[in-house]
Write a structure and sequence with these properties.
It comes from Citrus clementina. The protein is built from six helices and 34 strands. Helix 1 packs across helix 2. The structure holds 2-acetamido-2-deoxy-beta-D-glucopyranose (12 copies) and copper (II) ion.
Length: 617
């Protein structure tokens, strides 16, 4: 608590300046000092913006007219407050992907799960603290396919005076975040400009690389048509680095992301896969990368030339540049990993890593451009090998708190499937059906009101049932010949578990309509990945091989194509938590479910009531 100083009027004026400043320059973060943690305010104006790529102009939903969206930066321990105002004709909600949201489930964001969407003309203030996390995450829209254009980085810096568990990278040294204790002037404008300057300094010192997908058509129209006809949705026209498709596409060379580096330095790149439907291989020609962090948790560093990143996953890597500037530039490439039966965008996106050289030195004018080689599109063994390299740091400062004992074991199949074609329609899905997807053969139907409200106010009737199957009701040889009947069941089912349940969950891929890798994302938690394998999970022999020492901790876990993955987590965060495939196509087809974690006994183990501005359906 602040000591009471007879300065309440000054404080009020200061408060007014700060708030008007925040609303004047929506993209600016303003930090107000409060002990070592601060509160960071952002304003997201959701609005339409015309954006041109590949010689194609389209109107898209954006945050503050930016594509990709603005970065949100905070330190571990800070409070983040984002006022979202919806000026677009679409419904929307924003998800802070990977943020634990300890007892702040109302701020998590998935539409019809933790909140009703923010409708046109409405606003909602997301209010949460960052506890025990540091690294790279992302934020994105969580309504239909709006995240195709509505996404951005969420950077959590270590606490003041805390350092990275690796040598401090160049270009991460000077990070100035505003501190408003110096307010004295009432010249709002100049003050705001000072804040803007601070923000710009901060921007220069971060290297963030988002990979995304560009659709010439409106992604909302694409998924709506797919859900109508039952067919797979049209695929993207291009992949992007920081929103730019680059030189491998027609009419796009001018939209190329260039990363300029100095020789002999170690840079930290924050890689974020924001693509809608594709896991991506990533590589930089002639440069080895050291992986140091995944999903905002530190990992034991390892070197690699090629990375695989699933949508929703983030990876921090160190890039050591050559001591002597080479007379060459280097392509950064990304292209998909895919094993399914459907169509997909098989193109490759390029960006350029360029060494800064003295401008008067002509010998660097004509540089060779080197290309990295990437694995085959279906290189499943490479992916399995790569994901097995991730290990928690598991030291005294950053322990791996993997549950050693288990209270509840669950086994979920994740699979594609079908729904029958409505009587008076012809459908273009498999054998004239409609594509669907399911967890334990339940294709999750979104309710018309938010689950969290229904749960909190004990009004679940007609909204959801608490009977999500803990095991498949009809076991089969999951990775063998698929069953003839591929129809899924349909329902809004939740799995209810008591506070502090120690959970082990095996996620099993199936061969129904083609074995495929599925990046499963759990909201409100990080999970420890204790085991993975191909074929069917063997409950007798596989658990003996689990890693309970230093398993990686992630928020998005790849279920191997034709295989399984085992995760553990302690259910210490009360609320309703969405779990779903982070391919939006599978999400839309129903590969999603909800956990309800009950309140604990103590006051700090209970979900507080909703904020007063929570949107209504
Ligand atoms: C986008 O372009 C169209 C056609 O030129 C125009 O009618 C519309 O107002 C523009 N929208 C925005 C948000 O600028
Ligand atoms: C954010 O939440 C905290 C804790 O519940 C509360 O004290 C604060 O007033 C909230 N701020 C806003 C702007 O809603
Ligand atoms: C880059 O790698 C290629 C192929 O491995 C090699 O031929 C070339 O000499 C390397 N160039 C530089 C500048 O390192
Ligand atoms: C991508 O797919 C198209 C259509 O199936 C095919 O014609 C093309 O050769 C593929 N390109 C690559 C690089 O694999
Ligand atoms: C650049 O080098 C290539 C071959 O190495 C040569 O053909 C070309 O003429 C050079 N261009 C310039 C502008 O020097
Ligand atoms: C990958 O695709 C190639 C070409 O389509 C095929 O020959 C090969 O068998 C596939 N590999 C795997 C592991 O499925
Ligand atoms: C199917 O028929 C019903 C009843 O006649 C009608 O309400 C519905 O719109 C029709 N659906 C389609 C896709 O034509
Ligand atoms: C379609 O039906 C045929 C014949 O019943 C069957 O062999 C085939 O596997 C089915 N295809 C799919 C994708 O379900
Ligand atoms: C399941 O199917 C696979 C692949 O066809 C086969 O190798 C395996 O023996 C089958 N397992 C059982 C238990 O039938
Ligand atoms: C599945 O379909 C095949 C071919 O139509 C048939 O031979 C087989 O008996 C069917 N299996 C079951 C379990 O119905
Ligand atoms: C699933 O069930 C809901 C109502 O329970 C219904 O509105 C929806 O159309 C069903 N979806 C499918 C694909 O059958
Ligand atoms: C927006 O959300 C509200 C509340 O769920 C719903 O009634 C309305 O139909 C939605 N509008 C659109 C365009 O999706
Ligand atoms: Cu999936």
């Amino acid at each position: 608590m602040a000591t009471s100083i007879p300065l309440s009027q000054t404080i009020l004026v200061a408060f007014l300046i700060v708030t008007s400043c925040i609303w004047m320059f929506p993209q600016v973060a303003v930090a107000t000092s409060k002990h070592t943690s601060v509160t960071r305010h952002y304003k997201f104006n959701i609005r339409l913006k015309n954006v041109t790529r590949l010689c194609h102009t389209k109107s898209m939903v954006t945050v503050n007219g930016k594509f990709p969206g603005p970065r949100v930066v905070a330190r571990e321990g800070d409070r983040i407050i984002v006022k979202v105002v919806n000026h677009a004709p679409n419904n929307i909600s924003i998800h802070w992907h990977g943020i634990r949201q300890l007892q702040s489930g109302w701020a998590d964001g998935p539409a019809y799960i933790t909140q009703c969407p923010i409708q046109t003309g409405q606003s909602y203030v997301y209010n949460f603290t960052v506890v025990g996390q540091r690294g790279t995450l992302l934020w994105h829209a969580h309504f239909q396919w709006l995240r195709a254009t509505v996404y951005g980085p969420l950077i959590i810096l270590p606490r003041h005076n805390a350092s990275y568990p690796f040598a401090k990278p160049y270009k991460e040294v000077t990070i100035m975040l505003g501190n408003l204790s110096f307010i004295s002037s009432n010249l709002i404008e100049s003050f705001c400009h000072a804040i803007l300057l601070i923000n710009m300094i901060k921007k220069i010192w971060q290297i963030i690389i988002t990979t995304g997908e560009w659709f010439n058509a409106d992604p909302e129209a694409i998924i709506n048509q797919s859900l109508q006809t039952g067919n797979g949705p049209n695929v993207s026209e291009a992949y992007t680095f920081n929103g730019l498709p680059g030189p491998t596409y027609n009419c796009s060379a001018k939209d190329t992301y260039k990363l300029k580096v100095k020789p002999g330095k170690a840079y930290m790149l924050r890689l974020i896969n924001t693509a809608l439907n594709d896991e991506l291989f990533f590589s930089i020609a002639n440069h080895t990368l050291t992986v140091v962090e995944a999903d905002a948790t530190y990992v034991k560093p390892f070197e690699t030339n090629i990375l695989v990143i699933a949508p929703g996953q983030t990876t921090n890597v160190l890039l050591k540049t050559n001591p002597n500037p080479p007379n060459a530039s280097f392509f950064m490439l990304a292209r998909p990993y895919f094993t399914g039966m459907g169509t997909f965008d098989n193109s490759t996106v390029a960006a350029i890593l360029e060494y800064e050289t003295p401008s008067q030195d002509n010998s660097f004018r004509n540089r060779t451009l080197f290309k990295p080689s990437l694995p085959a599109i279906n290189a499943t063994n490479f992916v399995a090998n790569f994901s097995s390299k991730f290990r928690s740091l598991a030291n005294a400062q950053f322990p791996a708190n993997v549950p050693q004992t288990v209270d509840k074991r669950f086994f979920f199949t994740v699979s594609l499937g079908a729904n029958p074609c409505p009587k008076n329609q012809t459908c273009q899905g498999p054998n004239g059906t409609k594509f669907a997807a399911a967890v334990n053969n339940v294709s999750f139907a979104l309710p018309s009101t938010a689950l969290l409200q229904s749960y909190f106010f004990a009004k679940s009737k007609g909204v959801y049932t608490a009977d999500f199957p803990q095991f498949p009701l009809h076991p089969f040889n999951y990775t063998g010949t698929p069953p003839n009947n591929t129809f899924v069941s349909n329902g809004t089912k939740a799995l209810v578990i008591p506070f502090n349940t120690s959970v082990e969950l095996v996620l099993q891929d199936t061969s129904i309509l083609g074995a495929e890798s599925h990046p499963l994302h759990l909201h409100g938690y990080n999970v420890y990945v204790v085991g993975q394998g191909f074929g069917n999970f063997d409950p007798k022999n596989d658990p003996a091989k689990f890693n309970l020492i230093d398993p990686v901790e992630r928020n998005t876990v790849g279920v191997p194509s034709g295989g399984w993955v085992a995760i553990r987590f302690l259910a210490d965060n009360p609320g309703v938590w969405f779990m779903h495939c982070h391919f939006d196509v599978h999400l839309s087809w129903g590969l999603r479910m909800a956990w309800i974690v009950l309140d604990g006994e103590l006051p700090n183990q209970k979900l507080p009531p909703p904020p007063s501005d929570l949107p209504k359906c």
